[in-house]
Amino acid sequence: MTLSTRGMRCLWLYALGPGLMVLQAGAHAQAWPNKPLRATVAFTAGSATDIIARTLGERFLAQLGQPVVVENRPGASGTIGAAIVARAEPDGYTMLVNSSSHTVAPSTYASLPYDTARDLAGITPLANLPSVLVIAPSRGVRTVSDLVAAAKAKPGAMSFASGGAGSAAQLNAERFRMSARFEAVHVPYKGAPEALGDVMTGRVDFYFCPIVPALPLIRDGRLLAIAVGSAKRASALPDVPTTLEAGFPDSEYNFWVGLFVPGKTPRPLVKRIYAETQKAMQSPEMAQRMKNLGAEPMPMTPEQFNAYIREEIALNAKLVKAAGIKPQ
């Protein structure tokens, strides 16, 4: 019995199926992009995450000839924006710019509509952003020790802002609070601009804010920077000590902004997006802009970034439990 030409062709295509899929994905990566890109930002306009996303979008336009449409989808500590991209078509045209809150959410939300490590693939961190501890100058507090003393003088009366329940800003504050051994009330906001406004007016006492949106207000004298939350001093604020230097061990917290795509995005496309992102980040224009923003480089390959994400999920789960944060 012999097969028809059509039958033989079907068997041949079936046998080569996986290889053809790889070839098609590779061809698609080479053609990418042939239409505008969309970057979903998980926080409000004007936040550190938003500013970095728009700066990257400008470089992508120069490199690729396609505009990047930035859409702010704030709320729920970045999980609203993350859920949108997790469900998007994995074709390389929809990306997510999120902060390290991405690795906190699995511990602070009882039921997420996506799997953090599976449904979103990391491309690379875009920046490491030291958080800066800011207060209103009218408070009369000048040092970290002054702040801690004031908090201990009136237990539970002090409040701190964050970019949302379970956000990196909250965890930075909780880590510092536990090290300094004082109680404080957490006041969540949709993003940094709203939180900064209430800190300046004195409605909230302090805020571990990403350095990008806080820097202009610090330079204008509308906010006072008394410490940074990172393990080492920030290049943009070289005279401001770390909380570690102020005498509070285990008080540091790493805040970063990273680029993600839907989890099923083909590897050739992931590699292409990574290569273009690296090219953008290494350009003199981008490097200078990031330096002006106080952002530090945090280079990682997609493989390294995804491994780092899994480690951070586990570490943040322990911190959330120690801080007594209840899942929502």
Brief write-up:
The protein has 328 residues and is α/β, with parallel strands linked by helices. The protein contains twelve helices and ten strands.
Termini separation: 65 Å
Overall body shape: globular
Identify the CATH architecture of the largest domain.
3-Layer(aba) Sandwich
Major sheet strand order: 2-1-3-10-4
- Reading off the top of the CATH hierarchy, the class of the largest domain is best stated as Alpha Beta
Helix share of residues? 40-55%
What's the total helix number? 12
Task: Return the average pLDDT rounded to an integer.
Answer: 90
CATH topology (level 3) name of the largest domain? D-Maltodextrin-Binding Protein, domain 2
Most strands sheet: 5 strands, mixed
Strand content: 15-25%
Structural class: alpha/beta
What is the assigned CATH homologous superfamily of the largest domain?
Bordetella uptake gene, domain 1
Describe it for me?
Helix content is 43%, strand content 17%. It has helices spanning 5-15, 17-31, 48-64, 79-86, 105-108, 144-153, 168-180, 192-200, 211-219, 267-281, 284-292, 302-323, and strands at residues 37-41, 68-72, 94-99, 120-128, 131-135, 159-162, 185-188, 206-210, 224-228, 256-262. A five-stranded mixed β-sheet has the order 2-1-3-10-4, with helices on both faces. By secondary structure, it is of the alpha/beta class. It starts with a helix and ends in a 5-residue tail after the last helix. The radius of gyration is 22 Å and the shape is globular. It folds into two domains: 14-129 and 256-323, Bordetella uptake gene, domain 1 (D-Maltodextrin-Binding Protein, domain 2, 3-Layer(aba) Sandwich); 131-228, 3-Layer(aba) Sandwich (D-Maltodextrin-Binding Protein, domain 2), CATH 3.40.190.10.
